[in-house]
Amino acid sequence: MYGVSAAVRRYLWIDRERMGIEGVSYGGQLTDWLITQTNQFKAAVPIAGIANLISYNYMTYYNQYEEMEFGQFLHQGNLMDVAWERSALKHVAAAHTPTMLMHGETTMTCPSPRPNNFLLR
Asked: What's the pLDDT tens digit per position in 76-93?
């Protein structure tokens, strides 16, 4: 967000009222997260993002993501609580940005979200 703020200050042609955000994979995860933390964007398109770090850990073949990210497995210590706190899904009630979720049906890295995993606005 610091980079966005710096760009808006530096480039006066950027219209703050029409800024959108889009990202794929980790960019999709970041897009999911940012729309729960700020209302600065007028539209969002997260693609193949992880919205729930806990369910992601148990639904993908790539289940060492949290170990690499946090230095331990999800079931160790209080990492389950940390992962939930850092999951966009926990904060979805704060999201007011119009969002179009996109996801590949056959991707194995980020399994497609199930209908009951998301609240669309």
From this structure: 888 889 989 999 999 999
Give dist(CA 13, CA 7) in Å, integer.
Answer: 10
Can you tell me the distance from the alpha carbon of 10 to that of 2, in angstroms, rounded to the nearest whole number? 12
Chain centroid to CA 43: how far? 14
36 C-beta neighbours (distance < 10 Å), count: 19
Lowest mean pLDDT across 80-89, 91-100, 104-113: 104-113
Q: How many CA atoms lie within 13 A of 111 on its CB side?
A: 16
- Asked whether residue 103 is assigned to any structural domain, the reply reads yes
Q: Please report whether residue 48 resides in a domain.
A: yes
Q: Is residue 1 part of a domain?
A: no
Task: Note the pTM of the prediction, 2 decimals.
Answer: 0.80
Q: Which amino acid is at 92?
A: V
Pair 77, 113: CB distance under 8 Å: no
Q: Quick one: three-class SS letters along 19-68?
A: CEEEEECHHHHHHHHHHHHCCCCCEEEEECCCCCHHHHHHHCCCCCHHHH
